[in-house]
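QA checklist item 7 of 12: single-chain prediction sanity check.
[x] sequence parsed
[x] length recorded as 343
[x] structure emitted
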Amino acid sequence: MAKKIKVGLLGSTGLVGQRLVEVLTEHPVFELNTLFGRDDKHGKPYYDVVNWVCSSKLDKKMAEKRICSIDDENACKGIELFFSALSAEAADVIEPKLRTKGFGIVSNARSFRMKKDVPLLVPEINANSIELVAEQKKKYNGGFIATNPNCSAIGISLTLAPIQKELGLESLNIVTMQAISGAGLKGLTMPEAKLNVIPNIANEEDKILEELPKIFGTNDIDIKVRVNRVNVVDGHTFVIWFKTKKQSSRKEMIELWKSYKPQCSVLPSISTAPVYKVYEGDDFMPQPKLDAWYMNGMGTAVGRLEEISNKEFCVTSVSNNIVRGAAGGTILIAETLHSRGMI
């Protein structure tokens, strides 16, 4: 058996951090070696500082790990890769310091997503942009930052990836219905979301408008978006009106989803199952309650495809915001780096 890669986790107590702990506990490639946290948590066992909300039981070994300081050089010894679930404010400071010291970081924070030398990775779509990591490693003595996009940008880009690849996209009009878990632990109990729809999320529309062009590698798509927070626990839903550059049909579109081959190879986080769960004739699907956990939360469900004209269509899709849009997506990036010999 190959030796596992020792990893450290920044920001382990939040919702994304907890999902990372959950998945990394038994991961076949990575060994979660060290948990890092704020000064007020240093030295305390993980079970004392985390409000564990995952449905699985917290692993005893993980529960007993003591929180370390990122400034403790001994705690960082032997770590071959960092996963970051930090807030943007913390990531602004901590991630570049680690990179300068020669560490690699795979980050869920927004801080460095739009930097030219940092890949914004959805490996099924743009795994080849991971070559930017090699350029960073030359500059930072082996250090690098690779980033996971915004959770909605991931779900939207995965929905449209086969269409953009084969037909090209001219314009998008997007409405999101985003789960409360997208707001982190506080989102799970936010009173204003109960039996309600909140018709905006701070800075979310700007992130989608900025990140989709970088993911697709083009600035020639006209994009309009409105975001909403809805009283759903997990799973973002998207309604997308799109116009293609080439003519197509509803039948051809469905085949594009069914036959899509991801840029990344089969990895521990994504099985040989189809990337897309396609509903061809059910006008009431997909639904986050039923589809957010397709492929253990890593897949995308599409349905309600309407052919408006031979270049205009509308589709509804569901993507798991905490798994594929955050923790699982971050791990998939690391798996892709490993599969290409970059860590």
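[x] summary fact logged: Residues 323-339 form the longest helix (17 residues).
[ ] second reviewer sign-off
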